[in-house]
Amino acid sequence: MKKRKDSYRKSLIPNLLIGAHQSIAGGIHKAFERAESIGCSVLQVFTKSSNQWYAKPLSDEDITNYKTAASKSSIRHVIAHDSYLINLCAKDITILKKSRDAFQDELKRCEKLGIRYLNFHPGSHMGVGEEDGIKKIIESLNLVHQQTNGFNVLSVLETTAGQGTSIGWRFEQLSEIINGVAEPERMAVCIDTCHIFAAGYEISTKEGYEQTIKEFDRIIGLNKLVAIHVNDSKKGLGSRVDRHEHIGKGMIGKNGFRLLVQDARLIHIPKILETPKGKDLKEDKVNLCVLRKLAIKK
Ligand code: ZN
Ligand code: MN
Ligand code: MN
Questions:
Q1: DSSP, res 53
Q2: How far apart are CA 260 and CA 196, in angstroms?
Q3: How far is CA 175 from CA 81, 169, 197, 209, 219, in A?
Q4: Rounded Cα gap, residues 80 and 43, in angstroms
Q5: Ligand 1 centroid vs 192 CA: distance in angstroms?
Q6: What string of DSSP letters covers 199-219?
Q7: Total Cβ atoms within 10 A of residue 215
Q8: Residue 256: which residues within 8 A CB-CB, separation 6 or more?
Q9: Separation of CA 218 and ligand 1 centre (Å)
Q10: How far apart are CA 194 and CA 208, in angstroms?
Q11: Looking at residue 297, what is its pLDDT?
Q12: pLDDT score at 11
């Protein structure tokens, strides 16, 4: 009996693709060391400062450093997160133009580095309404995709909490965007557990969790899911407020994350922590440890 339990443990844990968003201080390639030092097998980074419009173009040296670090690393997947300033359905035409240019630049940075996934927030309609916002996002994506013809990097829509006027808090909205763009094959989706819970998807109970995954599969398709942001939520179900919490310490709780990390349908999907950080990597380490323990069947 004991032996069987151990073998299960060994078989499941190495397959668990978990990691955390890491700082790129000192160069993007430095994120690999940080991630590996705490036992991540997947990684998320910004490819530039997340709160500035413009970035120095990547030099040949930056690219070489990154590729060398990536090839030596045990990290299996890298996901890029776009700048928080970008709003692909901005009402202000200047911001919309800046957002489209910046998003195009982010796609180019990813392509140069060989990063397959660029995660982005669909956008905030700023009062014009969800339908018009969605149309604008589709228009923006068509434009940037045309300008980056033939790229391998996928534009990965992140589910949102629906805070303020942000779009993407219903699976239907993401599906509308994917089906509306000229090249849907360039689109994918990232589920953020904190965001969907705050948006009203009850993932903390077995029934609610199953219902949510079923709904995602029916409306978007699990084949479109390429990443999961694993965050607990400080705020309640349907609060529409986006506040991340440490795993098991928030309103989703350990049960929801146990269901997630034990879900065989999602075993191959990279799972990334975006939980609060302190000065060092201790918090990430603790959260990774909690997830690993939850992955052991009980
Ligand atoms: Zn995000
Ligand atoms: Mn997220
Ligand atoms: Mn968030």
A1: S
A2: 13
A3: 20, 11, 18, 20, 6
A4: 9
A5: 8
A6: HT---SSHHHHHHHHHHHHHH
A7: 14
A8: 193, 197, 203, 204, 205, 209
A9: 23
A10: 14
A11: 76
A12: 45
The tokens describing 252, both together, are: 């989703």
CA of residue 48 to ligand 2 center, whole Å: 17
Residues in the 5 Å CB sphere of ion ligand 1: 158
Residue 187 near residue 155, CB atoms below 8 Å: yes
Pick the CATH number of 17-48+58-294 from 3.90.550.60, 3.30.70.260, 3.30.200.20, 3.20.20.150: 3.20.20.150
Instruction: Give dist(CA 208, CA 259) in Å, integer.
Output: 11
The segments of the chain whose pLDDT lies below 50 read 1-11
pLDDT at 14 (0 to 100): 64
Cα separation, 125 vs 244, in Å, equals 23
How far is residue 5's CA from residue 11's CA, in Å, rounded to a whole number? 10
Dist. CA 75–CA 162, nearest whole Å: 32
Ligand 2: centre distance to CA 183 (Å): 24
Ligand 1 midpoint to CA 162 (Å): 12
Q: Which two tokens stand for residue 80?
A: 């890029």
Find the Cα–Cα–Cα–Cα dihedral 41, 42, 48, 52, rounded to 10°.
Answer: -120
Residue 143: CB atoms within 10 A of its CB come to: 15
Q: What are phi and psi of 22, to 5 degrees?
A: -125, 150
